[in-house]
Each structure stands twice: as structure tokens, then as C-alpha cells.
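Proteins fold reproducibly. Look at a concrete instance:
___
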Amino acid sequence: MSRPLILVANPGSTSRKYALFEGGSERARLRFELLNDVILCTLRTDKEESVEVGVHTLDDSPAAILPILRSHGVLAEQERIDCIGLRIVAPGEYFLQDRKVDDAFMQHLERAGEHAMLHVAGAQAELAQLREYLQDIPIAAISDSAFHQSKPEYAWNYGIALDVADKHGIKRFGYHGLSVESIAKQLAVHEKVIVCHMGGGVSVTALHSGKSVDTTMGFSPLEGVIMATRSGSIDLAAVNVLKKNLGLDDGATEEYLNQRSGLLALGGSADVRTLLEREAQGDTRAHLALETYIYTIQKAIGQMAASLNGADALVFTGAVGERSLPTRARILQKLTYLDFRVSDHQNAIQHEANTVQEIHEGTTSKPVYVISANEEKEIAERTINVAFG
């Protein structure tokens, strides 16, 4: 058959990203973001341009995909999308594999939603919209956790009875696997690599010979470092006090920790750029938020270095990792014990997409890179395997 047309759906915590692939070759990308209560869309082909959209919430983004692709000549009128690949973030052994979306899959997703309501609800909402606006196109669910299956057994466990954990699927599954897998393929030359994925969600992962050894996210993407709107790891006793004093039920507590915490709660904004601007103007709250955020990432890098018994290279990826020069520099300030030192000159060069940028200090530092993860390409390739393999 001719090369299949694959639509990739990669919904994030603060955006909706889509890409159209012809086989393994990318035709176009679409990114929907909410800014000041307005949905903005960027189309990237051989150029990048802003396009008007007729939707009012991020959840409705799938309604605009085909109209935009056809009106801008990316998808001809006679062409049809063969399959959709959707990134799935959900806890459970079932979701450690890529799967076709069918009735059995939807039942498993429904059950997973009972345990991790917010994260699974996002996948359910995206699936509902894709099915409504892109009818009769088969969908492959691409696991964001599958890459972490290589972790050693002890890196999966919490300190609870193993029979209870096994029966109820309470394990440290890990996420951002598609991002980290993309980095691993681009940086195969190093044995021990630490990857900092810094976007709306943030995780730090240890790689040994391209395989996941450990990662900071656990049962859900809430665990680990402070993120844009997520608290990161927090003591259960503190959560109980929070619930009691704010009058929250379980669902409202999960919403609070995932969507109203993190940088947003500490600094009044989930956007690192805004916090940096306010900090430069003397805003002490913004300064404290950034320092706390950076500190948790520095600690996580130390944890991952311990899991590897050292580190040969460090990678920054994700929107913040790629774009925020001062944040990278500040994280590196306390990593000299690992022999990571930043070059102010190299770090000041704006990162170009699809490149590997070195930002370390000459021969006095181990390699530090800024790399764009290509999650969409990973999803497209694995979708072809699920749909046509």
C-alpha cells in the first residue's frame, strides 16, 4: 500500500498538539493554546503561521483539524486520514502497551479513570472529540509509559505490601516516555544520561544505554518535582489537612493538586516566562516560586544520578527546557558536583528545533544538551505498527 496518512494527537496539560504524517515523513503540525481566554492555533509546514480557529475551548480542538489542514492545502480534498495515533497517559499494566481503541480498551480506560480521574478524563475527552469529528477513522492508543518498562523491579515499588500493590495496580509507572524515548534515540553515544523534560508537566529520567532506569513521575504524573500547576510529591498527612481545612472531597483535592498548585499557586502564574519577568522587577513571590521549582529539579537530578551511579550527560527538553535560558543556567549552578557546568555564551544561543545544542563549558564540563524531543514522530511510527503491523 502507499504510505499511510497518520494523524497524531498529543494532548498536553496546557496545549493540544497534532501532526500529520505520511508514513514516517511529517507534513504539518498544529498547536492549540489558550491565552487570555482565547484559543490560538499555530500551523507549521515549511513555514509557521497563526491561523484563525472557530473553537472556544482546548477540548474542542479536534473540530478544527480537518478544516485547517484542507483550507491550507496540507490535506487534499480527495485524501483521507488512514489512522489516528493518540498519546495515552493512564496508570495500569494494561496501558504499558500500545493498543487499538475498541470497546475493551474503552472499558479499561473507564476503570482507570476511577483511580486517576483527571489524567484519564483528558484522554477520554480527547477520544470523544476525535470520534465525533473524525468519524470511522481507526485510533491507536500509544502508551506514554511503555518506555519505562525497562526499569528494574525495585524502581516500580512503593512501600506498601506487594500483594496489595499487585492486586490493585499501584505501581510507579512513569510518564513522558515518548519524549524520553525520542531523546534516547538522538543521544545513543552516551551510556548514562539524565533527561529533564520541562513543559507544563516536568519529569527527570535516568537512562542507561538508552533504557529507562528510573523516573520521577509515578502512579500518575502528579508525583515528582513541582510543575506548572501540579504540586509534585506531597505528604499524605499534609493532603489530609488540606482537604479538611478547605472542605474538599477526593475529586476536588485531586483537581486542586493537579490544576491549582505548583508554580501557579506559589507564584501566581503557571508560566515561567511571566515569573521571570516579575522576578526581574523585584517580585519576591515570583522569585521564591522559581527558586523552589528549580530546587526540586536539582534534587531530582541528584536522585537520577544516584540511580545511575553517576552521569555522563544531561539533557534539557520540553518547552521550558528548550526556551528558558535563565532557568537552565540556574539549574546548572548547583550541579558542579556532577561536573556539569554551563557556558553562558552557548546557553545564550536560542535553541533551534530539530537540533542538538551543546551548552556546557568547554572541556571543564561533561556534556549538557538542549534537544527537541519528537514525540509526534514516535507516536506516528508506533501507530503504523499497531494499525498495520
Summary: The mean pLDDT is 94. The radius of gyration is 21 Å.
